[in-house]
Amino acid sequence: MTRSWNLAIPFGLCGAVLATGLFLSGSPWDAVVVLLLFALLAAMNSPLVFPRSVGALEARRRSAADGRPVVYWRPGCTYCLRLRLRLGRDARRLHWVDIWRDPEGAAAVRAANDGNETVPTVVVAGRAHTNPDPAWVRGQIPSA
């Protein structure tokens, strides 16, 4: 599944344009600060922060085989980012589905959340949990 850069690229371009304007107006330090801020925003909204997404069908199949939870997420979601960062390296042990890239994943989230695309939605043993505590999610990951 391809990765979506729809939010990261505009952040990077806006930062570059603003920093160039500040630099040309004689404020090089302000330009550096603005460029770093927008680079941070671009990085936080890039798909690189999240493990590679798989389709909803593949995620369910893998979860049934190894017992690991499925996380439905979307780029730009602060709650998804919070979950990802608080899980640390354990995040790579989960199956991630980007609902903006997978219509079936979006449908699964809507079915679990009364028609709303509320993310992160974590499915453990067939049961959906909306915006769960990261410590609880970590506890649901089977030991290797």
From TrEMBL:
Instruction: Give every Glutaredoxin domain span.
Output: 70-127
Q: Has the keyword Transmembrane been applied to this entry?
A: yes
Q: Name one GO biological process term.
A: cell redox homeostasis
| Parts of the chain that traverse the membrane | 7-25, 31-50
Key word Membrane present: yes
Query: Keywords assigned by UniProt?
Result: Membrane, Transmembrane, Transmembrane helix
GO MF term set: electron transfer activity
One Pfam family, please name it. Glutaredoxin
What is the protein name for this chain?
Answer: Glutaredoxin domain-containing protein
Q: What is the lineage of its organism?
A: Bacteria, Bacillati, Actinomycetota, Actinomycetes, Kitasatosporales
